[in-house]
Design a protein that fits this description.
By secondary structure, the chain is α+β, with helices and mostly antiparallel strands. A five-stranded antiparallel beta sheet has the order 1-2-3-4-5. It has four helices and five strands, in the order H-E-H-E-E-E-E-H-H. It has two domains: 1-51; 53-217, no CATH class. Helices cover 42% and strands 19% of the residues. It has helices spanning 5-51, 70-73, 181-214, 217-225, and strands spanning 65-67, 83-89, 92-105, 108-117, 122-129. It starts with a helix and ends with a helix.
């Protein structure tokens, strides 16, 4: 059966339209990729500075990093390829900032970063990305609510393990009216970050020191001599 000319012509036009649209999208992506990367860096830097203020460190947090050990990637929500940010003052480590992903948010994954001081206390927590319900679960975002600041100063001992939950479940942390799943998930994941730092504290801070030493002129000269 012969295809009508009009149908064949429309099919060709649709194909051409799809190809042109795909080309425009690809070109737009390539043209904005660098800009997106810069904006993401600025957003990350802003969040890092909210957790550990500039007055507490004198290194470049975005460059002074170490890879998360593979053994901890599942504990922190399968964050393979992510890095821990190291904060230093006068070449002395004062804390680390650890990424984590919550797979059990109400509306999907929630990505956060948590700063932990060398004494094991929380320096701060910030939510980087989420899809939680506006007016309910999105109160984990500091732009919506100050709830996330309730972690500051907490540790594995403050409160005890049972306290690391929302009040509805016998814990120390507030939940939101009409939304318990989201804050409960965040509390549990922050606790896991503290567990990670305690378990890997020695190797984590030792590796950070080694990484920093590799960047010094003396270390570079010794490496060249070998």
């Amino acid at each position: 059966m012969k295809m009508p000319v009009s149908i064949g012509k429309n099919s060709v036009l649709l194909l051409l339209f799809a190809l042109v649209t795909a080309g425009i999208l690809a070109t737009t992506y390539e043209g904005t990729k660098e800009k997106i990367s810069i904006e993401e860096r600025r957003a990350a830097e802003k969040a890092l500075l909210e957790i550990i203020p500039q007055s507490r460190f004198d290194n470049d947090l975005l460059l002074d990093t170490i890879m998360l050990p593979e053994s901890a990637q599942t504990l922190l929500g399968n964050v393979g390829g992510e890095e821990v940010y190291v904060a230093r003052k006068n070449n002395k480590i004062i804390g680390v900032i650890v990424p984590a992903i919550l797979p059990d948010g109400y509306s999907g994954d929630i990505k956060l970063i948590a700063g932990v001081n060398t004494d094991g206390t929380i320096a701060g927590v910030r939510i980087l990305t989420h899809k939680e319900t506006p007016g309910l679960g999105d109160k984990i975002d500091i732009k919506k609510n100050q709830w996330v600041t309730s972690f500051t100063g907490r540790s594995l001992q403050n409160p005890s393990e049972n306290g690391w939950n929302v009040k509805k479940n016998g814990g120390d942390f507030d939940q939101f009216t009409g939304a318990t799943i989201t804050p409960r998930a965040v509390v549990k994941q922050v606790y896991k970050v503290l567990q990670f730092v305690e378990t890997h504290q020695k190797s984590l801070f030792t590796q950070a020191k080694l990484n920093n030493a590799d960047k010094t002129p003396d270390a570079a000269e010794k490496a060249n001599e070998q």
